[in-house]
């Protein structure tokens, strides 16, 4: 069956295959609620990772275009912040309906530009949609506090928007991460300038069209494009009050330090090396299939991918079964109905991943399943890497220390749970971790002692739904207000407190001003 058969959107709206596109259109910007063709002199070619055919050209937005986007957002903020919460909520209700309506269209854009399988791309959309759905409950999430602090006097607090905020997004979740930012930012009254990844901006543009159709007014959501020059503009532009960044360590450290030095609020989610600990008492087949899915799904290009399996004691004997499971995964173009994993994002990424696999052998580890050089017959020019498993890995090896961001699982063997905890705690990253066990006390000790921000107990990718927040820690985050959930709303708002005195009698005449520190008692 066609993966598109359930959609209500017209088929012609889709780009449904990996076929060569005859006349690739340039990617537009979205400024003041209009799709705008850039006057850029620099363009970035975007290739379908399964074929390396050109899909579109993405502009490096010009300085004037970048200023125009902020002008539009600044103007819109004046009126958008005054709209009632109920008005914004109604728009958000409509927005979530439209994302559901165009779910397959969004997923098709993701598969074409990013490479992940169509089913996985639908999940990418869903996890972003859930943030928008949760934002619909804003009327009970944004209430302030009130206290009668003295006779006739009360203090109350409000959360107010910041103004124009920016989002700088990575390539690996083209819908989810824009939607981590947009709904909480606009429902709280801010206006947004977004820079999607220059490697796959298509989904963000569809989201912008849907936001407009839902009733988001002109200028509330703008999209500009490009690479470092656009980022430099956003982090230096004084009218932008806050930056949400998700991506690699290098870009994140730079954006965080320069953005905060410029007086902006910055939340930055960075790289990861997520461990899954497999205890000898675990349910073997459930644990292995969960780990294989989390290691190789999305070709390992998830910040919460399991990239290290830690076998404790006898569970090291299960690697053979894991290899058999990994061999069954189908690696091919993401629109193929049987695809389990698609290509990685670029030839450079493939070369980097294969280099790290080679480094493991050079460092004395054993490549027990080697996905290098894999070419699906139908997609000989794609950036494919097959599932790869490396055993005998030790801290200090490049394949252990670096985020590989490909379908590669390294296996470290330890003797005890304490050894496993020590290994994870010594790692510089702290995005996610999982343990597979049937023992409640083991799980309880693990969750207490482990230093990682998102802990899964028999759950391989413990990314919380948006009623919680995405809570990576250690080297996986800079800044202290997490994406989405309560922390996300706090990131996009500032507190205002009002202290009011309404005297119940005004009989006493005052003839001398009191100059002492007011105690409000
Ligand atoms: P990336 O850092 O290359 O790009 C992210 C954004 O930063 C893009 O918009 C890009 O244009 C911009 N950018 C890149 N280099 C820059 C530079 N030198 N100066 C200024 N801006 C720059 O990241 P990516 O490859 O798109 O994404 C993959 C990375 O993102 C992985 O490390 C992954 O772990 C991480 N990630 C983290 C999370 C999380 O929540 N922790 C989620 C998704 C992805």
UniProtKB/TrEMBL annotation:
<dbReference type="InterPro" id="IPR010061">
    <property type="entry name" value="MeMal-semiAld_DH"/>
</dbReference>
<dbReference type="InterPro" id="IPR016162">
    <property type="entry name" value="Ald_DH_N"/>
</dbReference>
<keyword id="KW-0520">NAD</keyword>
<dbReference type="InterPro" id="IPR016160">
    <property type="entry name" value="Ald_DH_CS_CYS"/>
</dbReference>
<dbReference type="Pfam" id="PF00171">
    <property type="entry name" value="Aldedh"/>
</dbReference>
<protein>
    <recommendedName>
        <fullName>methylmalonate-semialdehyde dehydrogenase (CoA acylating)</fullName>
        <ecNumber>1.2.1.27</ecNumber>
    </recommendedName>
</protein>
<dbReference type="InterPro" id="IPR016161">
    <property type="entry name" value="Ald_DH/histidinol_DH"/>
</dbReference>
<keyword id="KW-0560">Oxidoreductase</keyword>
<feature type="domain" description="Aldehyde dehydrogenase">
    <location>
        <begin position="37"/>
        <end position="498"/>
    </location>
</feature>
<dbReference type="InterPro" id="IPR016163">
    <property type="entry name" value="Ald_DH_C"/>
</dbReference>
<dbReference type="InterPro" id="IPR015590">
    <property type="entry name" value="Aldehyde_DH_dom"/>
</dbReference>
<comment type="similarity">
    <text>Belongs to the aldehyde dehydrogenase family.</text>
</comment>
